[in-house]
Amino acid sequence: MASVLLVEDDPVIRSALIEVLSAHGHVVHSASQGFEALREVTQRAPDVVVLDLGLPDLDGTDVLRMLRGISQVPVVVATARDDDAEVIKLLNAGADDYVVKPFSGGQLAARLGAVLRRTAPPAAAAYPAGGPEQTAGVPAAPRILQVGDLQVDPPARTAYLAGRELRLTRREFDLLAYLAAHADQVVSRRRILADVWRQPYVEDQTIDVHLSALRRKLGERASQPRYLHTVRGIGIKLVAPR
Predict the structure, then answer these.
(1) Fewest CB within a 10 Å sphere: which of 13, 28, 103, 163?
(2) What CATH number is attached to the domain comprising 186?
(3) Tell me: the pLDDT tens digits for 94-106?
(4) Radius of gyration of the chain, Cα coordinates, nearest whole angstrom
(5) 6 strand-pairing partners
(6) First CA to last CA across the chain, in angstroms?
(7) What is the DSSP string of 199-229?
(8) Rounded to an integer, what distance in angstroms lies between the CA atom of residue 93 and that of residue 83?
(9) 34-38, 78-82, 93-97: least confident range
């Protein structure tokens, strides 16, 4: 089904999880240290990473941030804490989901399946089955989305602001591309959850974290918006600055 990189330093837990994930049809490679995991990501380009935070050589959150510097691979973090501060920290660092210890192999396999389903680029789903080329009765979708000085290229997964490339996480890009495809429209949080996160329930705080990160990278603040405008009680709108 998918290529999984399992980053876990405990050999007993690692062996058990490899067995379970392999039984679910995944091809599993493993690493026991942070630097080894970074090397594996660059060499093998896995479909998803399972990252334990308690590694012997690097703090797991630092590994997550380093991963985000070299890859947009989905990452499921294994953590012993599930309080809000920990979740926000992981999301800010680039995690796509997390499991709280102790967890079963079956639960992890289910989480991986959900992450893989919802991390497919939403831009692809917006086109007909034949791609962005024109089909009968359906106008061709533009390759590059232009909103003021902001250019978003969904197929290439790149975004530029006034000619400067924006360094976005995978989820930040998905959100920006979706809003750019619906520029000048107020998009409700429910639609964002369904079309970008692809799941019916995510904490509002999760969306806020990603919107806040996008605002910083677009050079604006919520109190002084240029591109991203919050319509209170309704949703978010991306517009060209006036």
Answers:
(1) 163
(2) 1.10.10.10
(3) 888 888 888 888 8
(4) 19
(5) 30, 50
(6) 48
(7) SS---HHHHHHHHHHHHHHTT-BTTB-SSEE
(8) 16
(9) 78-82
- When mean pLDDT is compared across 129-138, 143-152, 194-203, the lowest value belongs to 129-138
Is 136 inside any structural domain? Answer: no
**pTM strictly above 0.85:** no
Give the residues across from 51 on adjacent strands: 7, 77
Tokens representing residue 163 in the block? 């000619």
The pLDDT value recorded for residue 126 is 43
Residue 25: pLDDT above 50? Answer: yes
Looking at the chain, the whole-number percentage of residues with pLDDT higher than 70 is 87
**Residue 134 resides in a domain:** no
Domain that holds residue 203: 143-238
Return the H-helix or E-strand segment holding 31.
Answer: strand 27-31
* Residue that is written with structure tokens 């989820």 in the block: 171
Taking the C-alpha atoms of residue 110 and residue 150, their distance in angstroms, rounded to an integer, is 37
Phi, psi (rounded to 5 degrees) for 182: -120, 40
Here the tokens at position 56 are: 């012997």
Cβ atoms of 121 and 174 within 8 Å: the answer is: yes
List pLDDT tens digits, range 162-178: 999 998 888 888 899 99
| Amino acid residing at 15 | S
For the chain, the residue count is: 242
Distance CA 106, CA 101 (A): 13
Q: Is residue 123 part of a domain?
A: no
**10, 26, 87, 105, 177 from 172: Cα distances, Å:** 33, 27, 17, 29, 9
Q: Quote the DSSP letter at residue 141.
A: P
Q: Is the model's pLDDT at 226 over the cut of 90?
A: yes
